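Deviations from the work plan: none for this task. Representative record:
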Amino acid sequence: MTNTFIRLLIPVLFAAAFAGFVSCATHTSMAKRHPGNMQPGQLCSDCHTDWRVTQNHTADFAVRHKFLAARQQQVCGMCHVETFCADCHANKEELKPSDKFKDAPERIMPHRGDYLNQHKIDGKIDPASCFPCHGRQNNERCKVCHI
Amino acid sequence: MFTLYRRLGEIGLMIYRFFLLIVVGALFFPATSKAFTFTGQSRTYLQARETISGENLTPLYEYLDFKIENVGSADVSFHFGGWARADLTGETLGKKTNNELQYAYVSYRRPTSNAIVSAGRLYVFEGVASEQIDGLYTRTDLKGAFGVAVYGGSPVETDVNTRSGDSIYGARVSYELRGTYVVGLSYLKEDDNSADFREEEGIDLWVKPGAKVLLQGRSWYNALTSGWMQHNYHLLLGPFDKLNLNVEGSKVSYGDYFQSATVSAFTFPSIDPNETVSAVGLGARYTISPSLIGIIEYKNYEYDLAGGADYYGGGITYAASSGYGAGISLYRMDGATDNLKYGAYRAYIRKKRGKTDATLDLLHVAYDQAISGVTDAYTVVGALGHDMSAKARVVADLEYGRNPDFDNEVKALLRFVYRFGAKAR
């Protein structure tokens, strides 16, 4: 019963989205591009003092970026092209992200160095952290051993 | 109803092709369009490495991404990203060549209400959804601070079976009091071969009750197993002068979370479906000076069935405008048994002078219990980069490793990046 309700609700939401598209809200959309080029290491709080400082890309932002992306991915697009996401969030990536950017050691990159052996420990302790990237996709390399 | 959502994928592709025709038409007949911009980059990687079995591999990768924007008077754009690989020697993962279309979609963006509609192969990040789909996606703000996002099509996943009868659809409805809180409710349904594969519901929160407090997180519910998959919340406090604090709490029920896994590492017996893990993490970041930052972290894992684990450590990073960058970090994983314990240590230094930069990165992992007779794994990376122009850059790196799989592992990689862009009128 619940499933049927939700399946019927989705087209209603499609209609709502379409209605919103056409007329509902009239406020100006957020800027397509961030005005002014951000320099490496620059923080939102260097210019902003309101809620936007919560998007500061400090070292721990790598762990929390999922919350922002899942809420409003257009915000990410103000500074990043989609390839920036696809370098890690891939379907069948073969090159490790950390291999692609060895000249940027300050960037938080998963699986630096010999992760083939370390993953046997991390995978037992926190397999849920592996699953978002390797659970249903990007796992051809996993399947060499984990058939 | 299932057929409807499969049709959505086909409709999405039809719309994608239609808009693609418009985009291509506008490019070839610029007189019909007011303007367009074409930007992108090509990244070419040539890697040399050896496999565990002793085979020498020399894969050549080409990563290409570009976008065409402002086509015609409307805000229509086309986005493309993908890669292809050809092996000059050997066979990577048993294939001489491989490729992936990461995304290719047409998008229309309205100047009001943050409304956007996209069709083609695209990424969807909306609440419980973090998906790559072939289909249709749309979102818009509604009146009264509500927002709605809806998507549907066919899921793009590793080819573990055919894509016949596969469909995915879902939505997220949100309410926002700008700068104070956002609450979202989301739903995702995926069918594999016309059978139920995933049905997930989620709630996400972003709450900022004060200038120095932020709570954000999410809870996901698996409607097929009738259980909560995970709760994951972060509390950020600060800054208090130069100090920022964060607290993380999470709980994952393996039976509900891993229900839709397609690789054996996430199924029984590797994963016990009766297991539940609760984790609490604490972290502090201290800005010693604008260029010098210290971090300490601690995370505790508690399991219903297995023993607990602690992960803790910290580091200091230095980044100066003069072009110097450096970092050192020391972390320790203390699992319940000796084979789940290691120390991970890292130090790097980077210097940029003029158009040239050099990097040295040292990593050491010390296992409490030897793996294949080895307790210490070392990796040393040296990289040299040069900006040939504002658009072109070349990087060469060499990596040496000693680890449980290799007595001496040498990997080399040459990278050439070229950014291109043009604005036509």
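The first strand of chain B starts at residue 36 and ends at 50.
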